[in-house]
Amino acid sequence: MGAKRTLVLKPNEIRKASLIIRSGGIVAFPTETVYGLGANALDSEAVAKIFHAKGRPADNPLIVHISSREMLNMVARDIPALAFRLMDAFWPGALTIILKRKDVVPDITTGGLDTVAVRMPAHEIALALITGSGVPIAAPSANISGRPSPTKAEHVIKDMDGRIDAVIMGEETRLGVESTVLDLTVTPPAFLRPGGLGLEEIIGTIGEVNVIEESVRSPGMRYTHYSPKAKLILVEGERKSVLFEIKRLIGESRKQGLTAGVLVSRESALDIECDTKYILGSVNDLKEVASRLFSGLRFLDDAGVDVGIAEGVFPEKREGRAIMNRLRKAAKEWVSCYKEAGIK
Hints:
By secondary structure, the chain is an alpha/beta fold.
């Protein structure tokens, strides 16, 4: 499928990667959030290769990555003053803003919408690739659609080897979750996807925001995402009740002859005995948890467990909002251990 051989490029081989982009190819590259799979955002045939390689539904819009504000003017029109306040505060960085698109941006890049999602990544390799290519780069996460996003180059190779033209080998990504998405085509602005930038920081900069978190305008929000191959059960609630429920689920799995793996906080790790477990980090260090989340979901696959169980006790503030959003999207079953308990 796609390329016959995926070139593995070093960070100092940006020129080769840029030539591939300019020639209509697709290249995986590191950003501060997750690894992206990029193509010339203005070339519909090149962008189509992204959807083909990922198996991504064609109505799911892509984020257009830029390296300068001049490049923003290539793809967006009627840019409001609010956008510049946000750019001044958070670009380069993990904020994607949705603006009115220019006609030069093909429908396949925007999912047929009249808007375009744009961000400027805070990563020297990503910025060098965009600048060297001389075009804005459309890029979703560099994984098979529906799988956990890649935060390491080896994740990309495992999913995409032979499907794409090249991958630039960088270090593990710093943030570990995708960008926050904010729609500036409506008033007040709509917070569509939690990510590496906290809602609190956005409100502190521009004031009122309408929190929606589900919208066809937002890249990566239409379909199931982030799922490991094993069935994932998310257990939410107060820590004591969550631990009790996780132990019960592990016991049930063993009775059925199934192996269970648990994604757990550092605080609970010693309290849980199971076939295998992955420590996401401390509930008091949400940056650490976010950076390890997708590696944890992939760990369940590498371990070959039948059932995955995730401890959902992370406070929903700043990075915690993105962590819980991704866990809920990855889970096939959700067990609530709050006062009004139930299963959804």
